[in-house]
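ok so I'm stuck.
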Amino acid sequence: MRNLTLLEVDVQEHRDLDWSEVVEWFHHVEEETWICKVFRSGEICEEEEAVGWISGGVTAAKVSNDGELLAICSGEQSLILMRTSSWELVTEVNLAAKARGCAWRRDDAFLAVFLENGHVFVFNPDGVQEAVSEEALPEVVGCCSFSRPGGLIAAGIPSSGEVKFYERNCLRHLRSDFQSSAKQMSDLSFNATGGLLAILDEEPKRLLIYYFSNYKWYLKQDIALPATVQSLSWDAENALKIRAYTNVEDVISFTFSWSTIVSSDESNTAAVVDGQSILLTHLQNQIVPPPMCSEEIAFERSISQVFFARGEGVLYALLSDGQIVDVQSKEQVASLSPDSFPRMPCLSRAANRLIVVAGAKGADESIQVYDTSPGAPAELIAQHPMDTGVADVVSSASTNGFFFVATKGKRVFRVSPSGDMEAVPASESADILSFAPCEFRSSSSCSEYLLLLCGGGLLKVLDWETGREGTISDECTSFDSSSKFLVYSTRSNVIHTVSLEHQEHPKSILSLADILTGLAQESETVPGRPIDRGSKIVKALNDEMRVVLQAPRGNLECFIPRPMAVSQLQKKIRDQDYRGAFKLCREQRLDGDLIVSVDFDANKFVDEVGHPTRLSIFISQLSLVALEKVGDALLAAMGRDTVKFIHTIVTTLMSFEPPRVSAALRAISQNAAGESEEAMMDYLLILSKNQEEVYAAALATYDLRLASLVVAHSQLDPRAHREELESLQALPELNRKFEIASRVGMPQTFEARKKGRVRECFSEG
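replied:
not stuck anymore, here's the structure
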């Protein structure tokens, strides 16, 4: 679900090199202003001074990543390792054939060498052979690259454009092989993390950047280059920055950033660029594991970037030739010059305005605003030069047609539909990496804020009208917002939730208003949810409940944060959708007290839930306070069909504190018979904490048969209790009731009956 967005283009002067003869060049390890060159003829020069000569010429050469060692493959079938600080020979190894390419691993622990006979060798820095391939490639390898530790060795086949892979032990890694779109590959290189593979194609001259995820290589960028470009080199520190060196004293630097493109309409469609295709996944309806998708749309040209107009489900694409088109209808919206490297397009259909970044830093980089009224070609209405690189461009969350532009100079600007640009009051504490608008709703108003993700993981909220700011997190890795919630992930691998609505309950989650007013530390926040290490947020879906994550290995995960689930539950309760509320409680294990807290309709609740067992589980999990509040109403509602709900009625009566044992026994006696009565007695005894108490309550009903049933199904001493029941059965009725009353601790009521019985005996005498 990740897209590689072109963020910045920079053109700088560089030392002129005669590329027709240079095999390898690098800065001197001790003095970076000096350039060392290795020529095909075998000459090694430091600046203009020759410091060495390789007899037989040079077929391949590569300097180590730390600049300490230089590996040279000579035309006399040998591998030579030299120290660049003193040009001292480390070792020389004879090879079985001439080498066509060599590459150091990122940690410089191993060197891979590809020979003309199709075999690959791996050496350590001392020149000792560590591994050799068993089978030879039938094709001739033209370029190669060694990834990070634990990564693979890539070998490019210029004639076919295929890229084949080896493990460090020189075994083929077949499942990673892929067919690139390069027609004449001249160079390829892994970035510092090994996640991106850059290819230089000669026909035509272009830069291809591939990304590997879930065992698939995606073509993320296809950038046309000047014909003077001769070599590529990734930045050693910034894994998303690559340089293209030319033979006219220029070096073009491209800086990228990762972005997730998901629509904000009801479908929540995610768009992924893959060369000339756009892969669409409708997250609201189905979440399929990449590289599968719901729909694929193909174009005749490569796609540089895709984007949605805010508030719409219409997808637009910026093609490699500079055209911006509607993906579904293929209608052209604007045509831009590809030579200006157009990037970060943003469209507002509310005002028919398009904003793009064009040009290169140091070479007239600017913000361009176009009028895209239907039925007419796009017209440039404003252009603003930018001194610093642009970090991100977004459109306003409202329908006023405004845009916001964040720069690497730690500034935020607002661009009006007329093209006017003004600075937004904000602090300049950290570099802005990306940002997004959101709306905060209170009971009487709606305010638009900006969410800014800055360097170091700092996530801030900015009231762009007043300049007020608040810090949400200082370790944020990704974020997204729906209409009611902001969710963000942290380096601690936890997802947190912030409300975009005013919260009145003191134990509610934080709201943006709390953060802006400085009350965040005083609120009792809900703890976050742990997630897999390195997972990033793809989208907070519009159903206001689900959040989609993508793990580093590429698979998707969907879950429901508890605050969002509680919000949905409260909405269902307000609508008296008890069936949906009960289902949500069961699925998300929410507190059932939330259902019975406001305007509870017991009759409707029992009718919609209907299932006795589910009702029993729900009632048994209620707190005592909630049960005291709604227990009698539930009993009355279930009393309309006591045969169906006998289990639930008994559960409810036994859940009170103290348990209403007598009422439960009466319910069993009146509504169950035969085997059902015995089964219900077993159930009652399971619920009871004291079986003697149940026996006493059964006696208190004066139904000795019921008391005998308790003894038969309990763990009480059957002999003692049966003798007691037989003695009670032998007594006259009034005497039996008096004895039972005395036995169970209710003497006052039957004392009068005793006295009445004495008077009756005297009158008979």
